[in-house]
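STRUCTURE REQUEST FORM
Protein name: Universal stress protein
Source organism: Streptomyces silvisoli
Requested output: structure tokens
Priority: standard
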Amino acid sequence: MAADPNVIVGIDASPGAEAALDWAADVAVARHDQLRICHAWRVAVHPLLDADRGHLVEAAREAAEELVRRAERRVRERHPELDVSTELLPGEPAVNLMSMAEGADLLVVGARGLNRFTALLLGSVSETLAAHSTCPLAVVRTTASGEGPLVVGVAPDEPQEPVEFAFAEAERRGVPVRAVRGWLYPQTLPGHVVVPAVEAVEIDRAERKEVTALLAPVRERFPTVAVRIEVGLAEPEAALVDASGEASLVVVGARRHRGRFGLPLGPVTRRVLHHARCPVVVVPV
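Status: completed
Returned output:
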């Protein structure tokens, strides 16, 4: 378990790993945290002779060591003042990273989706961590950039943890918060939603009032953070994905389900993780 404030970044040899590494280092500097660079490595089981297997394991270990050395050099060149350490984790990446991240401020990984279906863009390790990590998880894509506002999803029963994380991060970055909520309306016919204008105004007003009340305690603790509340007729996940286009970060709560047949993550969190156009932080609740 981590004893000191630290940001942990899990890296591999994929293109997205460098973006995650750079993003994690920048966050660690802003937080005055340590940065721990971790790489989980393993050798696939093959029907090889013991002598050949030993050579394969040694080659894999050397490649892993070189990977973390390069990562450490990259970070030290960009942030020579940052406290950086590295660690090799033999075995399953998701399990090892979850263990390392217990007590950490933040766990950071890249989005490495290799599935043939284009809708599944996240990667099994990232999605496993999003479903089970005990600390906030940041998933960073290779296209992550920008100094835009910080977007936080505010559901009707939103816990305080994601909102507090969003405001604290916005204060560190010096950017405003966009608190986003989408509301739905019964369909009159499949694919057709007709909302009377007067009723839409009333719903907007009620939703905005509720979001304002939910944010009030956090706004008192972060009075310097500018806030814009956005509500409207939209699927909540679609509203957040759309807002991500101009955002520097999206924060969502991890609504985890432990039913026998259900997926661990709720549909809003999963869709935002798969389709957001900026880094996403999933805060366990």
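Reviewer notes: The beta strands are 6-10, 34-41, 84-90, 106-110, 137-140, 150-153, 177-183, 227-233, 249-254, 280-284. The helical segments are 15-31, 50-78, 93-100, 124-132, 160-173, 197-221, 236-243, 267-275.
Form closed.
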